[in-house]
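## retry 2 of 3
previous attempt timed out at serialization; input unchanged, resubmitting
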Amino acid sequence: MLQLVRLHRSRSQLALRTESLTARPPAEIDNRRIGGHPAATRCRCLPPPTAPTFPAIPTDPTHPESALSIFDRMIPDDFEQVVFCHDAASGLRSIIAVHDTTLGPALGGVRMRAYASDEEALIDCLRLAQGMTLKAAVAGVNLGGAKSVIIGDPKRDKTEALLRAHGRFIQTLNGRYIPGVDAGTGVADLELIAVEAERVSCVRSDPSPMTALGVLEGIKACVRARLDADSLEGVKVLVQGVGHVGAALAEQLLAEKAEVLVSDVDVTRAEHVADRIGAAPVNADEWLSTACDVLAPCAYGGIVDDDTVPNLRCATIAGGANNVLAEPRHADQLRTRGILYAPDYCINAGGLISLEEEILGHDRERAERRVRSVGDLVAGVIRRAEQDDVSTATAAAALAAERLRSLSTVGPRFVAR
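## retry succeeded, writing output
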């Protein structure tokens, strides 16, 4: 195991003009329980910087930039801890990234994917972990941001030994990172990780339906803002990716009398979901050219890039996927085209909110009420963007940064007991 730890922050990196975001004080979550295990204390964290960049890594050892350390080349300044894990017996190769623990222990899913390279896996892990920090901050959740990725095909390489090995590495962090479900993993997988790791979320229930519910409310807010409609009846929504979250969202949209189209790279899965709920299937290579009111990405991120922006045929992008934008600048390109973008870490915060409610021991009815407030959050971001004449991505980042900055002195950064 190669473990890299960085606790340096630069106070000069936060210069965003923001507005306050009401939330419960961080102390409320101290000494609560998750998955049957006590939560630990938090501690002081300096403010986070702006979004990191991920430079290409020279593969030629004679390249002058190859002399730079792994910190300089691969670990952005605002990450607290990155752990590279290897277990020869099980074949495990995984990465755990703890981005920020200002608000509490860092929670984030375990993603399993057949990455093309280790560099791609690291970049994905870092971007996802930072997104969890922003999500918690903007949604008023008292948890930090983290993520882990397992390099491998979940359909072919996933074994009990591999998942338990990953759980053992998670346990070495002593509660700083709380894993949950993500693409390529499910509740049963988290139960195996929990055999080795003391603090694990999602072993009681899958938060995907709650994530979908928050996305539904966010879509309603977008439709009100862009289409001036108080109902989803007759609104055409294309759900791209019908895994855990996407399938649940498609079903909820149909219950609201929306016109629902579904698409997935797994054609069989798309057809099965379409037949089961009564939606219309769209070929995986045709979603970009399909006209719709709302495009709801619910698969992997990075679908909004230089190639896709000019060809999008939607009025709004609002879905459950993380890191929908390939780069932050694409938010401005969407704005130029007149496409309303609901920042992913705002609209898909319902799952994280429901997990915090589980930590606090609240019932499902209360959790659902709070998840439905995602609609208000998205509406607030849209208003802020209009007020400041900026993209919705910029407005959301400002709100998240303000909360992190205001609570960075509450104190100390989370340290496991």
